[in-house]
Design a protein that fits this description.
It comes from Wolfiporia cocos (strain MD-104). With 472 residues, this protein is mainly α. It has helices at 2-8, 31-42, 61-69, 82-87, 101-114, 117-122, 124-140, 145-162, 172-188, 191-196, 213-241, 249-259, 265-275, 279-291, 293-306, 322-334, 367-371, 393-399, 416-433, and strands at 45-50, 53-58, 344-345, 350-352, 355-357, 362-365, 452-453, 462-463. The chain has one domain: Cytochrome p450, CATH 1.10.630. The chain binds protoporphyrin IX containing FE.
């Protein structure tokens, strides 16, 4: 009676079945779209069960702010993520860490490096240098624009984190990171792997057992993750000790702990973890501009008028280019890079709008649904930067998708200002120097790519058909 009664106060949701709960209704792909369907039937707050685990799906910005920001003291934990942390070895990365002292220490270091204005300003020489390399690569090999964007994003992170300058497109540090992330995504997509989070005992299944192929793949991925974490760290440590390290996030942490004699194996593991993590925004930009040449032309006119033809736009020019700002907001809204964010977890029972939200429940934030809110964004499926024009300050603030695409509360993305600045720099530099046009097929007809987006919790690539042989 008690269990039924307390269940009655749970938010509404799809009907569960015995043992599985709602697992059979959870799609393997495009979960955010299923969550939006559930919203039509059950509302902004939906309750579901994954086996015995309880899940709360938040489908509106208002509820996300009430729960994850106003009550951040009890809504900043992460679910255990046993597969990622224990099996694949991402446990020293604080993005996946449980809320607590370890997380707090790494978050504080990252805050100093990526959220303080002075630190962000000090990165501009590296940003301008990498921007020049990006433009030159795009001009020489326009067909490989995806690789160039990946390299741009990685080069910035690597330089600032480790003081390491990528030397070529085939750079071994860059490839190692890509490899670790790709293997994680591949093996993490296996159904058996996802089961480990609900039945942790599976993680003890020996890799040699018939049917345990996913464990063999996981061991390969684990080795790649370890190398991605250890090798760059060890190189920086060697440079710090031999007195030839370039200034970077990791080198300054190592130097500080060496000086205080506090560089214990535990601290070393923490520094490695905080160092491991724009390319999607830039790829979406190319897709949107191929599909909307009128928008690209207006952006070019704005840059020509304000900046002229003798120099590239610099970060100080940002406020003078309002139309570009609208394009960036619309890119973030049209294809949010992380449509479900990262899951939070409640540490205590909560009462919300008459519902009981149980402690321990996983909270999924349906960021994609927030980008589709017709009250703020009429005809949300259309790419229309003009929707952000001619707004008073209040409305501009309320409708800015950067309020939610980077997550919520104490776990909000610490790289958000850096990612936003780099997206702006990449986009304005391309608009200032290059034309973007559709590729042509062998009969010289233009190819119009479709706006299809792939799914995923942490990655969300627009699928653009590769350009043909034309140079644009
Ligand atoms: C357009 C680019 C980016 C987007 C859309 C994005 C989005 C997000 C989102 C949605 C979260 C989850 C927040 C939550 O739990 O509520 C997150 C967390 C995080 N992001 Fe980003 N991010 C971006 C770029 C970056 C960059 C460049 C860095 C590194 C400098 C970074 C580092 C992190 C870290 C470390 C976390 C975990 C924070 C924590 O758990 O305390 N992100 N990001």
């Amino acid at each position: 009676w008690w269990s039924k009664n307390s269940d009655r106060r749970l938010p509404p949701g799809p009907r569960p079945i015995l043992f599985l709960g709602n697992v059979h209704q959870f799609p393997a792909e495009f979960q955010h779209k299923t969550f939006s369907e559930w919203r039509k039937q059950h509302g902004d707050l939906v309750f579901a069960r994954l086996f015995q685990s309880k899940a709360i799906i938040v489908n509106s910005l208002c509820v996300a702010q009430d729960l994850l920001e106003k009550r951040s003291a009890v809504a900043s934990d992460r679910p255990p993520m046993i597969f990622l942390n224990d099996v694949l070895g991402w446990d020293s990365d604080f993005g996946f860490m449980r809320y607590g002292e370890r997380w707090r220490m790494q978050r504080k270091w990252t805050h100093l490096a990526f959220e303080k204005q002075a630190a962000l300003k000090s990165y501009s020489p590296v940003q301008y240098r990498e921007r020049a390399k990006l433009l030159s690569a795009l001009l020489k090999h326009p067909k490989d624009y995806r690789e160039h964007y990946q390299r741009f994003a990685a080069a910035l992170i690597m330089e600032i984190t480790y003081g390491y300058t990528l030397v070529s497109d085939d750079d071994e540090f860059f490839r190692r990171t890509q490899h670790a992330i790709q293997l994680t995504l591949n093996v993490g997509g296996a159904a058996a792997a996802s089961l480990i989070d609900f039945f942790p005992i599976i993680k003890h299944v020996p890799a040699w057992l018939p049917g345990a192929g996913f464990m063999r793949d996981a061991l390969v991925a684990r080795k790649a993750v370890r190398e991605h974490i250890d090798i760059p760290y060890n190189a920086v440590k060697y440079d710090v000790i031999s007195g030839q390290a370039k200034s970077s996030f990791v080198s300054s942490l190592i130097a500080q702990h060496l000086k205080n004699d506090t560089l214990t194996p535990y601290i070393e593991e923490e520094i490695k973890g905080s160092a491991s993590g724009l390319y999607i925004v830039l790829t979406t930009f190319i897709l949107a501009m191929v599909l909307h040449p009128d928008v690209y032309k207006k952006a070019q006119e704005e840059i020509d008028q304000v900046i002229g033809h003798s120099r590239l736009p610099n970060l100080e020019d940002r406020e003078l280019l309002p139309y570009i700002e609208c394009i960036i907001k619309e890119l973030f809204r049209w294809n949010p890079p992380s449509p479900l964010g990262l899951p939070h977890s409640l540490t205590e029972d909560q009462e919300y709008n008459g519902y009981n939200l149980p402690g321990g429940a996983i909270v999924f934030t349906n960021i994609w649904q927030m980008t589709q809110d017709t009250e703020f964004y009429p005809e949300p499926e259309k790419f229309r930067p003009e929707r952000f024009q001619k707004m008073d300050n209040d409305t501009a603030k309320r409708t800015d998708p950067r309020r939610f695409i980077f997550g919520f509360g104490r776990r909000i993305c610490p790289g958000r200002h850096f990612a936003d600045t780099n997206a702006w720099l990449g986009i304005t530099s391309i608009v200032a120097t290059l034309d973007i046009c559709k590729a042509r097929d062998i009969n010289n007809n233009e190819i119009t790519p479709g706006a299809f987006f792939s799914h995923g919790i942490v990655r969300y690539d627009p699928c653009i058909e590769r350009l043909g042989d034309s140079t644009c």
